[in-house]
Amino acid sequence: MKEIILCKLGEIVLKGLNRRTFEQKLLSNLRHSLHGLGEYRVWYSQSTVYIEGAGEDADMDAAFEAAGKVFGIIKLSRAAACEKDKDAITALAKDYLHGELLDAKSFKVETKRSDKRFPMTSIELSQYVGGELSEAFPHLKVEMHEPELVVHLEVRESAAYVHASPVDGAGGMPVGSNGVAVSLLSGGIDSPVSSYMIAKRGVRLVPVHFFSFPYTSEAAKEKVIELARLLTAYCGKMPLFVVPFTHIQEQIRDKCPEEYFTLVMRRFMMRIAERLAAEQGAKAIVTGENLGQVASQTMEAMASTQAVLSLPVLQPLIGLDKEEIVRLARRIGTFETSILPYEDCCTVFTPRHPKTHPKPEEVARAESALDVGALVEEALAGAERIMVGR
Ligand code: ATP
Ligand code: MG
Hints:
With 390 residues, this protein is an alpha/beta fold. The chain contains 14 helices and 15 strands. It binds adenosine-5'-triphosphate and magnesium ion.
């Protein structure tokens, strides 16, 4: 039996004139995500993307899983193909959907016929196959409005297809269709999720991690590389920038009032991220900040942090509860890695009494003993670029 995967596209179908570009991006992202999983033929026709194994090594389970992570696809189903003949289609439906037909109590058949030379209309074919299935599975009730099982038939140019039970795809828009952003990636639970959410809106990400060796360990860096790698299942290949942050943090510790340590440190992160953004053609900075979660996530603290940059800061988790973030982290597969117990630079030199409602000018005064420009240049010069993903 020849199997195929059918992918339904989401919002991109609405995109009018840009539609072609969106489709091309999606196809190219999909081909990348299948890379290394065997040979496939991937094509687009009538709002549906088709994936067909094209060699011995094609692994349809792996391909289905990979396609389920490609943004821009809202529904996927596995289908089987046969010749365009009503009895061949019936036999295939009985065989391919045997388990589903046994499990369901009610069903209906829906046919799409794009090959207009096929001798039956859509309705005639649905009625014929529906009748045959009712006879073969007498427990099944035909239900037009809310059936448990919809048996989909498609009569296309090249073949007829039978499929059922589509599953939800990743949704969103194809990565690369909505610009580039620098995403601040710590080793925590939140920032992999915020990265995911912005990538889902079609944004290509350039992750950056601030690394305070030896206060934070080599294992902490490996953990961030692994988180970035997990994200590439959705985002595709990404350059991860690891920026040395130790000297900046030591200077802050030595020259700034303690209650401002975290705020000054976050301003450095933003300045460096903005410089990387300019270099990478990125038009926004993404963080995993969440209103009220920690001292640096009050409105005043965020204002003082964002006062040093002109790019917009995207904070997709701002209104979520921790529980909701954890649920997302589990779903996208980053949670287990995020909870590995390594320190982040944010937990090095944390003030005992952090300022929670600072004025931006106070924070500016607190950092006035530092040579901000030189420290930023030094960190950028030491940045390591690591390509992650296949
Ligand atoms: P996370 O779980 O993502 O670490 P958090 O709740 O611990 O977030 P903070 O430590 O205050 O919050 O950090 C807020 C945001 O700043 C993070 O979500 C992340 O985007 C960014 N950030 C924090 N530490 C780093 C780091 N070492 N490198 C890069 N970005 C960081
Ligand atoms: Mg953190």
